[in-house]
Design brief:
Helix content: 25-40%
CATH superfamily of the largest domain: ATP-grasp fold, B domain
Bound molecules: adenosine-5'-diphosphate
Radius of gyration: 21 Å
Number of strands: 21
Length: 384
Amino acid sequence: MNFFSTNKKLGILGGGQLGKMILYTTRKWDIQTHVLDPKIDSPSKLACDYFFTGDLMNYKSVINFGLGLDVLTIEIENVNVKALYELERNGVKIYPQPSVLEIIQNKSKQKHFYKKNNIPTSNFKTFPNLETIKNSVAKGNLSYPFVWKAASMGYDGYGVSIIRKNKDLEFIIDCECITEDLVSIKSELSVIIARRENGEVKTYPVVEMEFDSISNQVEYVISPARISNKIRLKAIELAEKVSEKFKHIGVLAVEMFLTETDELIINEVAPRPHNSGHLTIESSYTSQFEQHVRSILNLPLGRSDNKIPAVMVNLVGKKENFGPVVYKNIDQILVMEGVTPHIYGKKQTHPNRKMGHVTIVNKNLNQALKIAKEVKSIIEVISE
Ligand code: ADP
């Protein structure tokens, strides 16, 4: 499928930072792109050829956007899947496939998928609403502590709560949900895998994700993960099994927990470029974004190993700051060795909003981590 400097059209549902970084590749290769996002000032707007505003969950707006495209991809999972099936029937290639998205959009379906395919994951129960959880607790069928997750529309830890007592149930929303056993986590790992139509697969190194204990957002991503070779091989084998079962096209981020007893279990997957792969722009021979474009256009995949170790720091809005954004002290980090800031182009900041990230590369991973911690203490995302 030759897209280079032709009239062939690649569409992206969602115009956020992931879309913007996918567009670095389409710019490099002169691939015509169309982007749909509800917000007129989305990060992707300047980098695409044609920008449209519309609701990604609305059937009609997705159909109108997608008809006439050659290939359509996503940078966010919350899109109207019925419309994607219809577009697929109309000859548009949709990657990741609507059948994959349908499973991933709903945590209950996703967990059942793992169970059916013998993929290790934490024990879970599904519930249609809050009332049924309360009844289950009252009857002694569900006991504290457990993890509550909204079945759909959650992201970045919103829609996830650890429930330890009756009172905690008062703060969760009333919706279809799942509960999971609370896992004793030693570390959280992620493996990104790209797959294309002809079956070619490329696997990125296992990375480690460190979360902020309060916001539940990723604070640092460390590549390669500081784990034994045995666990690394096991993590890759498990991620490749998951990828093989989904048979996704495009990149798939496989998030897993390494438990205190050194077991590896799957937490969830994302069938798109992922926060745990941002550092591949600087660390890898082929960034996850370029790899995604290669996969969905059925082009030969690029090398996915590291050129150099790397650490990524997310830049999120400082608490209590709302309004036009200022990246305080960014000049101080620009002079540091191996440090590359990425600014997403969102004009307004608010607490914990993902506004950018910084990648730190260094031949010595411990040194990269040290610099990452300095970066984190120097730069501040505040409002004017
Ligand atoms: P989201 O889809 O919003 O990213 P996740 O399902 O990944 O939500 O959960 C967010 C975080 O909550 C995880 O990265 C992990 O730190 C914690 N978490 C999720 N599930 C469990 C679990 N079963 N046991 C312990 N911690 C969990």
